Hints:
There is one protein chain. The chain contains eleven helices and ten strands. The protein has helices at residues 33-37, 44-65, 84-101, 110-116, 161-171, 178-186, 211-224, 229-257, 273-283, 296-299, 304-315; strands at residues 2-7, 12-19, 23-31, 74-80, 105-109, 129-134, 139-146, 149-155, 262-266, 290-292. Zinc ion binds next to helix 4.
Amino acid sequence: MNVLGIETSCDETAAAVVEDGRRIRSDVVSTQIEIHRRWGGVVPELASRNHVVQIMPVVDEAVTRAGGPAAVDAIAVTSGPGLVGALLVGVQVAKALAAAWEKPLVQVNHLEGHLLAAFLGEEPPTFPFLGLVVSGGHTSLYEARAFGDYRLLGQTRDDAAGEAFDKGAKLLGLPYPGGVAIDRLARAGDAKAIRFPRAIVKGADLDFSFSGLKTALLHHVRGHGVPEGQGLADLCASYQEAIVGALVQKAFRAARRFQLPTLVLAGGVAANGRLRAAAAERAAGYEDLRVVVPAPRLCTDNAAMIAVAGTHALERGLRAGADLNADPAWRLQ
Length: 333
Ligand code: KG4
Ligand code: ZN
């Protein structure tokens, strides 16, 4: 079964065709990063307007590369969570195509898409697994029991991990998206140069909190200014280490506590080089714990992951009607 996935929840206009939930036949992403960069973050109305411009060319390219409309068996679209005006563009196009081609339509939760991106890799995970979703809007730990069956184990109390990267980068005068800029600069830095606080959330040891870290960086910059050269690299590496340290510690704690043999990293922050390395290093200390991380381009927003989630939702008999709406606050589970 070939499923066309459509994704417009934030600042990426994406379409992809995936065969049997495993093999990518086409995967097109048009990013708006350059448009939002001058504002230092995603401007919702600009995102919607640009989705409207990009969506048809992007879908057309994905469908053509996969063999044309006749090769598409069903359509899956992200209907939440995300920016409502952005989501509506994808939802409306998906409904129109489903009606015109007389193909089944299914709605997909963006976070489930991130969790299932790992199934597009060479060695996909098996259920049950511990999924860490780290993106611009979410930082959550899920017990994934089966396709469509997820239990939330912990989440952030304030900023998402991606937000911590983006806001930290802004304080340092680095371009949006900050995670990418910090990741790159940190490679040449000493992560032990500056001690940042590790977030501890009283009474909920699988929850995260990153706002204190951001404040610590603000105080550091107020006291010392923004360094250049090696000093900036050290500051980035130290700040990144505080975020990555908290993510890895809690993800492994959850995996051990709930006896989940596989840890899946997902979402844009899972593209972070240090997070990928730190998770692999930590896993090497256990004989019975495997880490699965999608290729970096499948960690950040894409439509192939939406097609994967859609394929399994269709297999479970789920269908969306012509009245499908966006659900900007749709919670997974
Ligand atoms: O999943 P995603 O593409 O969009 C959302 O669903 O939010 O995640 C975007 C987030 C941004 O905060 C961005 O700074 C972060 O992922 N990100 C990274 C890296 N690449 C993207 N954070 C750290 N290191 C990276 N290499
Ligand atoms: Zn995302």
